[in-house]
Amino acid sequence: MRPTVKSYFSGAGGLDLGLIEAGCEVTQSLEYDAICCDTLRLNFSHAVVSTDIRGVTVLDQPKSDVIALTFPCNKYSAIADIHGARTGDDLFLHGFRHVAIEKPEAFIVENVPGMKKFKVVMECFTKIPDYYVQVFCPIDASNWVPQVRKRLIVIATRKPFHVWAPQVGRRIRLKEILEKAVDISIPEYVFARLKGKYRDKPIISDPERDDLAPTCVAHYHKDLSTRLVKDRTFRHGVRPYTVREYARLQGFPDWFRFAGTDSNAYKQVGNAVAVPVGRWIGDQLVRYFNKNK
Questions:
Q1: What average pLDDT score do residues 175-190 get?
Q2: How does DSSP assign 59-84, residue by residue?
Q3: Of 111, 56, 106, nearest in space to 88 by CA
Q4: 7, 72, 120, 288: which one has the fewest Cβ atoms less than 10 Å from its Cβ?
Q5: Phi-psi domain of 88 (left: phi exceeds 0; alpha: psi -120 through 50; beta: other)
Q6: Half-sphere exposure (CA, 13 Å, Cβ side) for 224?
């Protein structure tokens, strides 16, 4: 059996792609950002609904076996403390509303570990009646790709079910995701950060030492100086990641296309769910539905 999934806050479709690779059938993606919707349409054949979930009534939506929720993490992340923005928001309530009214056979939530600090959010998703809920934190994308990216995953099912921890094989190495003969324009502010003219130095990863890249972040589209990779062919021996390399760090295959400019692509990649994490979630859902069919 291929469980059907409705994806909410889908972004560029990292979770959608991982679920599909695991054998799930994504029937609908709901996303507010127009450029992300264009990306979804470029890469998937299922329905893409471009709208704000706050105006979507549950009973007007097609039913599915699973509801997947990846509501924005920027108000829950630790980095939000720097800007005084770690406040949470009400978008999770609209995801919860869809789960509580539709009552799918299973639902999943993906967010940053910082979401655990928000007791109201965690209570909604872990104490909802009639579901067996399992929380995994952290699930780290570095199990599969050369990037440190820790996430909180909630998997809830109507029947008891034991979720398997990630079965990790050989992790892709940083040197394997780097492009050859890279042609990338490096802004002068990159060199300014290298010289210590900013509050902090860049995080530089060395593929020859098997370093992991730091977490891919959406604001990379505004500041390429925060994350650099060693490359002796460039001035000062370092450079930013290309869009394709950034996408590979998140597990996106090379055939995957991003709508908009390179800047738009960096932002989409940084906001995405790492594809292998989505695939691990999908593997658990497929096991559940084939065990309980």
A1: 95
A2: GGSPP-SEEEE----TTTSGGGGTTT
A3: 111
A4: 120
A5: left
A6: 20
Nearest to 15 by CA among 114, 167, 163, 155: 155
Rounded Cα gap, residues 42 and 130, in angstroms: 38
Instruction: Tell me how crowded residue 247 is: count the other CB atoms within 10 A of its CB.
Output: 26
Euclidean distance between CA atoms 293 and 291, whole angstroms = 6
H or E segment and range at residue 59:
none
Q: Which domains does the chain have, with CATH numbers?
A: 4-169+267-291 (3.40.50.150), 174-254 (no CATH)
Distances (CA, A) of 236 to 163, 167, 169, 215, 271: 47, 39, 35, 23, 29
Structure tokens at 283: 């593997």
Q: CA 271 to CA 216: how far, in whole Å?
A: 8
List, for residues 43-100, the tens digit of each pLDDT value. Answer: 999 999 999 999 999 999 999 999 999 998 777 766 544 444 434 468 899 999 999 9
Name residue 59's amino acid.
L
First to last CA, the chain: 8
Look at residue 283 and tell me whether its pLDDT is greater than 90: yes
Q: Which amino acid is at 163?
A: V
Contact 97, 54 (CB under 8 A): no
How many whole angstroms separate alpha carbon 40 and alpha carbon 106? 23
What is the identity of the amino acid at 136?
Answer: F
Element (H, E) at 21: helix 14-22
Cis peptide before 138 (omega within 30 of 0): yes
CA-to-CA distance for 101 and 143, rounded, in angstroms? 35
Cα atoms in the 13 Å half-sphere on the side-chain side of 240: 25
Distance (Å, whole) CA 10 – CA 30: 6
- Name the residue among 26, 17, 98, 88 with its Cα closest to residue 55: 98
Q: Which two tokens mark 201?
A: 């130095």
